[in-house]
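Entry 0007
Protein: L-glyceraldehyde 3-phosphate reductase
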Amino acid sequence: MHLDYVDIFYSHRPDPNIDLYETAAALDQLVRQGKALYVGISNYDRDQTATMVKYFNEMHTPFTVNQYSYNMLNQQAQTTGLIDYLGQHNAGLVAYGPLAEGLLTQRYLQGIPADFPIHRTNKYLFDQGTAAVVNQLNALNRIAEQRGQTLAQMALAWLLRSQVVTSVIIGTTNVDHLHANLEATHNLTFSDDEVKAITAILK
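Output (C-alpha cells):
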C-alpha cells in the first residue's frame, strides 16, 4: 500500500485454530511497532469481543471498533448485547451489509427470487420462507414513504440513529444510488410511534 502505517488494523474474523490471546497480542504488536494507530476486530460475537477487550485492556492496546453484519432484518448485533457492550467500553460498531444484499430496497417488494445471493450471516432470515420477508419489506416501505424516505434510506437511518454505530459500509456501482443513500443522514430521528411500529414488524 506504500504506507508507513494504517489508522486501524482489523482482525477480519476469529480463527478457531488460534487462541484469542495470540490474536490480541499480534494486534498489540502492530501498534507498538508503529504500523497501526488503532486495532479493530470483525465478525467477533459478544463473548469473543468481551474476551478480546479484556486482553486489550491488559495490554493497553487502543481498541476502537468491531465490524459486524447488521441491518434492520438482522439485528443480532443488538439482540445479543454486542452493541450495548461496545458502547459500555467506548468502542464503536461498523455495520456491513446494512441493506441486506439489497433486500432493504424497493427492488424486492413483489418477491424474492429463489437464487437470491443472501449472505451467510443473513441466511436465517429465510427460515420462514421468503414470502414472510416480502411482507416485512412492504410494511417497512410504507413507513419509509410516510417519513419521506426510500426504504434503503430508512434502513440506513435506523442503524445510524445509534451512537454506537460509527459507520455503515454501503456498496454500490451506481453514483445516483450512492447519493440517494447518503441522503439517509438528512433524517436520523424516529418518533416513538415509528420505533414501536418498526419493532413490531421486525419481531
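Curator remark: Strands lie at 6-11, 36-42, 63-69, 92-96, 165-169. The radius of gyration is 18 Å.
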